[in-house]
Amino acid sequence: MNTSKNRRLVILMYPRVREMDVASVNDIFATANTILPENRRYQIACLSTVDAPQLDGMYGMGLRTGPLYSTFRGEIDTLIVPGGMGNELTEPPEKLLKWMRKQGSSARRVGSICTGAWLLAQAGLLDGRRATTHWNQAHLLARDFPKVTVDPDPIWVKDGNIYTSAGATSGIDLSLALLEEDHGRAVALEVARQLVVFLCRPGNQAQFSVALKEQKTENTPLADLQIWMQEHLAEDLSVPSLAQKAAMSERNFQRVFTREIGTPPSQYVERIRIEAVRRKLERSTQSMEEIASACGYGSADVMGRSFSRQLSITPGEYRSRFRSSGIMAEV
Hints:
By secondary structure, the protein is an alpha/beta fold.
């Protein structure tokens, strides 16, 4: 944990920046300032790429800007580039890219949210590094910048002093992780509580869950069944039991579920149970037997075999590797 005094955190704004990205970063660190000692608070500044008192955000909200980036003087501890409309299509001026490169070498940390990764990549800050962005844009980032190893799955990635995160709300997760680096888990968790963040997600977590990924059916009974399954993992989720609950024959249930959800019911059950195991390994101190029971496995050994088959790592190895990444506690 870094214990140096006041740090200057800069959010770089530009026309059609995503309003949520700016607000979420500002809220996390401004809220932290309300509970930190005065000499350890953040100096938050919004710099602009345009010389104007206000700019329009991605969805039309007027945003008051700060000084023009090129006129700013002073050290920057952490620079965050939010996402926005058209970043992947825009060629920024060389003057801005030169300034970004300077910050990449002088700032303690440089980070991006969503398509803000394009500006980092255009400045060469992601060359030879692993990075992420919004899952729907990841293939474009990989295409445009072959020197970057783009991983579309995590909600945020750290490679050296460069941090990249996925879309929208992942900026909250990245900000909480940066806050934890600076002031420890207790402060980050208190800020999460203050902002009523339901879960503090570690960077290795996938951008969207199995349930969300497969929640595409318009078949209301099956959609309701998916929700019920998530809430009753410890119960009998065999095909006969689920077919009975859906008021279908087993054969018809298999056919309809696979067609609507895109995966057979038995595979879907295993995936949502493994996802639940991962969450508990990351965020709880429960024993393996307790986790196995809560997630619908007959024993820790059965859970371990299923977990290893899906992820090629044992539950114990997974816990030791990922419990220290980001903030693990449930709030």
